[in-house]
Design goal:
By secondary structure, the protein is an alpha+beta fold. The strands form three sheets. It has a five-stranded antiparallel β-sheet, with helices on one face. It has a three-stranded antiparallel β-sheet with strand order 6-8-9. The chain binds adenosine-5'-diphosphate and magnesium ion (MG).
Length: 253
Amino acid sequence: MRNSNVFFKDVLGEIKKIEKIPEQGCTSEVSMIVTGDGTYILKSAFKEKYREWLKLEAEVLESLYFQRPIPVPRFYGFTEEEHASHLLMSFEEGITLTAALRNAGTNQEKRRLIRSFGLFIFQLHNQEPVFKTDSDWLETQLKRARKYAESGQADGSLELLEQLIANKPEHVKQTMIHGDCTTDNVLVVDGEVRIFIDVAGMTLGDPRYDEALAIRKFRHNPELVSAFYEGYTRHRVTDDEFRYFEKGLYEFF
Ligand SMILES: Nc1ncnc2c1ncn2[C@@H]1O[C@H](COP(=O)(O)OP(=O)(O)O)[C@@H](O)[C@H]1O
Ligand SMILES: [Mg+2]
């Protein structure tokens, strides 16, 4: 980590404080850096698969730097060393939706948070595409899934993968998606979901994947599911579609 600070020295200037943040994800190590004129987040990855993802995340953030309709952290730099990659971005206020739901005192507060999550994803899916692609998102994901399964980097088996290839859901229009749209990967400010983080998978893709991952934690609570769909009013995944994405494709990522 000390090395990466050298790489980012021109951006950061004198560092006053650097510390690992309490809430860590599963693919990276995240630190907060305080300098004379700002607060930053340094996200570092060490495993090959996660270094690739971090690079994608850097590319997404960089290309969204001047396009602000989609709320994401600001990109400040990306660097690759022999055994690690590092992404420097803006520190954003807020707590993850997972933490906000855990802290919520009442059911009503939970419903409000989840409605706001639904609306936030609705806005992303209705957004003019910012990235262009000619390829079919699901095809690309299935190819990546095979690569991970064959190299022992996935929970999903090759048998499951064959089932997913043979039983693709009916095609829907591709939209902007987050690509790992769980309650861990959005931040809440003042009781509302305000910003996407962990955006390596943000691209033009299948909106049902976001929808399935978004509702996975409260799928069996009808009250919370209906709160979600008060905000997310464009589509409802069927049980089969939910299974395909959440119990199927997600096993490889
Ligand atoms: N730009 C940011 N501003 C503030 N906190 C952040 C930022 N990026 C990440 N975090 C914090 O770090 C945690 C892990 O980050 P995340 O990008 O989700 O990593 P992972 O890919 O390992 O899941 C998040 O839950 C959040 O608490
Ligand atoms: Mg995450």
